[in-house]
Write a structure and sequence with these properties.
Number of strands: 0
Radius of gyration: 23 Å
Number of helices: 4
Order of helices and strands: HHHH
Largest sheet: none
Distance between the termini: 83 Å
């Protein structure tokens, strides 16, 4: 039952992060859930580093949502770079000796 709680919590946090973050995110149900779970792990890690949570505490709703937004921003940054259009090569000038008819 504990795992099911993590999955449900991750799904809700992932949905909220996707609603807050602007842009198009072509993620499905599983992607949103993974986003939320990874965000909760990141939020818990940051919360423990800052002193919000103890060593045995899980991430709170706010920290998990912030972590999911950070993960979604990193995902959008990486995926936008891979989908960028390749630069077009400029037309090369024709050498002068090619202009003359042979």
């Amino acid at each position: 039952m504990d795992i099911l709680g993590w999955i449900l919590f991750g799904f809700v946090v992932g949905l909220i992060a996707r609603a807050i973050m602007p842009g198009r995110d072509p993620m499905g149900l599983i992607g949103t859930t993974v986003l939320g779970v990874i965000g909760a792990l990141l939020g818990g890690w940051i919360g423990r580093a800052v002193g919000w949570y103890g060593p045995e505490d899980g991430a709170g709703f706010f920290a998990a949502t912030i972590g999911a937004i950070v993960v979604l921003g990193a995902y959008n940054f990486i995926s936008s770079r891979s989908r960028a259009k390749p630069k077009q090569v400029a037309d090369r000038p024709v050498p002068k000796d090619r202009d003359k008819a042979a």
